[in-house]
Amino acid sequence: MQLWFCWWDVIALLRPAFSRWRTFVWFTVCVAGLSVRTDKLGVTSIVRALGLDGEYYDNLIDSLHSTGVKLDALSATWAKTVLGVFPGLVRVNGRLVLVGDGIKVGKQGRKMPGVKCLHQESDSNTKAEYIMGHSFQAVSILAQAAQSIFAVPLAARIHEGVVETNRDKRTLMDKMIALLAIVGIEEPYYLVADRYYQCRKMVRGLLAQGNHLVVRVKSNAVAWTRYIHKGGHTGPGRPRIYGEKVKLRSLFRENRVTEEALSPVYGEKGVTIRYAVHDLLWRPVGLIVRFVIVIHPSRGRFILMSTDTSLGAVEIIRLYGLRFKIEFAFKQAVHVFGAFYYHFWMKLMKPLKRRNGNQYLHRESAAYRKAVKRKLHAYHVFVQAGIVAQGLAQYLAACHPEQVWRSFGSWLRTIRPGLAPSERVVTTALRQSLPEFLLDRTQNPILAKFIVERQDPDRSEVFRPAA
After folding, report:
1. Is residue 465 scored above 60 in pLDDT?
2. What does 33-98 look like in DSSP terms, one character per residue?
3. What are the C-alpha distances in Å from 23 to residues 17, 27, 156?
4. Exposure of 271 by Cβ count < 10 A (0-12 exposed, 13-18 middle, 19+ buried)?
5. In degrees to the nearest 10, what's the CA dihedral of 312, 316, 319, 320?
6. Mean residue pLDDT across the chain
């Protein structure tokens, strides 16, 4: 039961992001339901998991659509809360480490705004090349828990599918920079991303805020040496900046990759890698950046780039090796919390066609545009509730592992000392201790009272473990 009080103490810090108390409590009910449900069938699974009366289904739906949820403020408040409650945030050179990436979620609803035909680039033969769905971009922050590292999710937004005006020329890079601004991390940080984000807009946007990018580079990328003037510049025009052109993949020649080190990649032991460092001019930004040429015995050859030239090569390799943590966080968000399993349809929407592209709203009525924005707001609030649920589970695993295992009430063959409990273990512990939390009358927070008053007395299965 004590686990739920720790859970409540953290989520209560999000109250300023809601204009009404009741809206905040319904949001916490949604987060609690996502944390303990055993199936992922939308809002109905939250009603079942908490034993609520069926008449409160509409209240849950309305709370997700409510204007009382200040979405951007909620994301910023959650990020501030994460910085305040997680004791082991990963830092390099005094900077925090953020991870950014995208995820494509399949949706077949013909009346769901933002759904479009998406191309999936994956090596897995179980994924279709094209799907209909929502395209998200997300930001997480790395945190240490015992010997484990979590990618704690901060925010996610649908960044494709709906174009409000034909004057909107923003790219996905512009929207990722805007998402980082919404999160509002005031401390300097490194953003680690895959090679899709190796572009001028990302680098310029981050450097303007005093932050740096660590990214993988495409194999056909080129750079330039700095031109050295002999005897000073005397001719007309701007002094020459760029010297010789360097094809980065040509740097993999055996005699140029001479440094050796034990692999700093998370989870690897006894693996020796070879690398070389080259500080070169990168023409898209006109600045000197650090390229690290890496030859890994099993992962092959790849090139990394850091806009911080004071960052060591081994540290750059270690940071990029932690990028997969956001992939693992996506997996947990989908399979454990169901953060993307929403099913809200817009009744008045014009049905989409198969392989539909972006939906342009500049010729639609003001009422139609408002309805689309309202539905997208509901999607984002539901996803943010899943993000908060996942982050709270990671917080309990990092700061209260003993209480988690005490409430777990089951057995795992893979329990290993020194590793923090997984998100699934935490959700099981929360599910096991929920009846005791709801039935205790001595120190009941308002959330327990709110849920108990709205439960269906004929559905007492939620109380059976406490009997």
Report:
1. no
2. HHHH-SS--THHHHHHHHTB-GGGHHHHHHHHH-TTB-HHHHHHHHHHHHHHH-TTB-EETTEEEE
3. 10, 6, 21
4. middle
5. -170
6. 90
In angstroms, what CA-CA distances link 7 with 31, 129, 334, 389, 428?
A: 11, 40, 21, 10, 14
The per-residue pLDDT for 466 is: 42
pLDDT for position 442: 67
pLDDT digits (tens, 9 = 90+) for 24-52: 999 999 999 999 999 988 899 999 999 99
Contact 100, 193 (CB under 8 A): yes
Mean pLDDT of 412-420: 77
pLDDT band of 232, cuts 50, 70, 90: low
Query: CB 217: neighbour CB atoms within 10 A?
Result: 21
What are 100's two structure tokens?
């950014």
pLDDT at 241 over 90: no
Contacts of 241 (CB under 8 A, 6+ apart): 226, 227, 281, 286
**Torsions phi, psi of 22, nearest 5?**
-65, -40
Boundaries of every domain in the chain: 2-194+325-461, 196-322
Report the range of poorest mean pLDDT among 198-202, 250-254, 307-311: 250-254
Q: CA quadruple 112, 117, 120, 125: dihedral positive or negative?
A: positive
Rounded distance between C-alpha atoms, residue 351 and residue 370, angstroms: 17
* Residue of 216, 219, 221, 319 lying closest to 265 (CA atoms): 319
User: Do the beta carbons of residue 229 and residue 131 sit within 8 Å?
Assistant: no
What is the tens place of the pLDDT at every residue in 337-349?
A: 999 999 899 988 9
Q: Distance (Å, rounded) from C-alpha 462 to C-alpha 65?
A: 27
CA-closest candidate to residue 118, choices 95, 137, 91, 142: 137
Q: Are 46 and 34 in contact (CB under 8 A)?
A: yes
The helix or strand, by DSSP H or E, that contains position 395, with its residue range, turns out to be helix 366-399
Q: Which three-class secondary structure state does DSSP give residue 303?
A: strand
Q: Give CA–CA dist 65/42, Å, rounded.
A: 14
Whether residue 300 is predicted with pLDDT greater than 50 in this model: the reply is: yes
Sign of CA dihedral 65, 169, 217, 239: negative
CA 233 to chain centre: 49
